[in-house]
């Protein structure tokens, strides 16, 4: 079994680690675009062009499924990716976990990039799933870039700024950018209020990993013998895991496997 994941940068680590936990015997292909980052400020057409290049590089490794582990690419490029690659290669997109976040009644905050915050796409998901639950959209300028670069000071500053824009009574926070899942516990600590239970965080990594297995008819087998390979592609070039990836537990989990190019 071989699962490919794509993103602009290292935000794909969370979903890749989720796949690794469900199926430690799966080979992984990680395709990203450090030369083209960030994708957020690009036009929809430009994001689609970059996403197609990254997806084609991954598809050349003949995976069984491709996870688009990027909210921006899922918003803008998913139809084009599916039109080109399916049905030969199943393509699984990433959607902010708004539906499960409102199950507890809220209030809910959605942390996302400035480009996604207030977008018709995100507003449509809120209308579709939130119902009467109060939802606050919280832009997080600089957080994805800080996570990408493993810049500890910048991460702390960006999280603190976003936490200050988050209502004190929220009971759940949706992590609307895959990069944010790599610093989830730091976000949880920043939004916790004295005397109140910890805030529930809702990411997408586990759901997209499980959906990828479903699409190819595979069952989770977390106790399977680890015999996985790891191929890393950076803007079309075979490479090793970026050094910044090893700053996160998810990257270290993947880095424990010998690269297989």
Automatic annotation (TrEMBL):
Isomerase found in the keyword field: yes
Keywords: Isomerase
Keyword Cell cycle part of the UniProt annotation: no
InterPro entries cross-referenced by the UniProt entry: Asp/Glu/hydantoin_racemase, Asp/Glu_race, Asp/Glu_racemase_AS_1
A Pfam family this chain is assigned to: Asp_Glu_race
PANTHER family with a match to the protein in the record: GLUTAMATE RACEMASE
The name this protein goes by in its record: Glutamate racemase
């Amino acid at each position: 079994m071989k699962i490919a994941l794509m993103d602009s940068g290292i935000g794909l680590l969370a979903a890749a680690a989720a796949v690794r936990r469900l199926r430690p015997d799966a080979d992984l292909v990680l395709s990203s675009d450090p030369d083209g980052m960030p994708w957020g400020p690009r036009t929809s057409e430009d994001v689609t062009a970059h996403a197609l290049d990254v997806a084609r590089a991954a598809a050349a490794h003949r995976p069984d499924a491709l996870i688009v582990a990027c909210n921006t690419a899922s918003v803008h490029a998913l139809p084009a990716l599916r039109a080109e690659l399916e049905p030969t290669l199943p393509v699984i997109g990433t959607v902010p976990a708004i539906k499960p976040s409102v199950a507890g009644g809220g209030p809910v905050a959605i942390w996302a990039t400035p480009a996604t915050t207030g977008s018709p796409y995100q507003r449509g998901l809120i209308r579709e799933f939130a119902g009467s639950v109060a939802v606050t959209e919280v832009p997080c300028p600089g957080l994805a870039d800080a996570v990408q670069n493993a810049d500890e000071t910048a991460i702390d500053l960006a999280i603190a700024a976003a936490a200050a824009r988050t209502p004190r009574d929220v009971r759940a926070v949706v992590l609307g950018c895959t990069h944010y899942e790599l610093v989830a516990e730091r976000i949880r600590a920043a939004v916790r209020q004295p005397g109140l239970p910890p805030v529930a965080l809702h990411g997408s990594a586990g759901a997209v990993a499980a959906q990828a297995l479903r699409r190819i008819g595979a069952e989770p087998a977390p106790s399977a013998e680890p015999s996985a390979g790891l191929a890393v592609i950076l803007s079309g070039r075979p490479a090793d895991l970026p050094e910044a990836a090893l700053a996160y537990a998810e990257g270290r989990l993947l880095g424990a496997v010998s690269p297989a190019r």
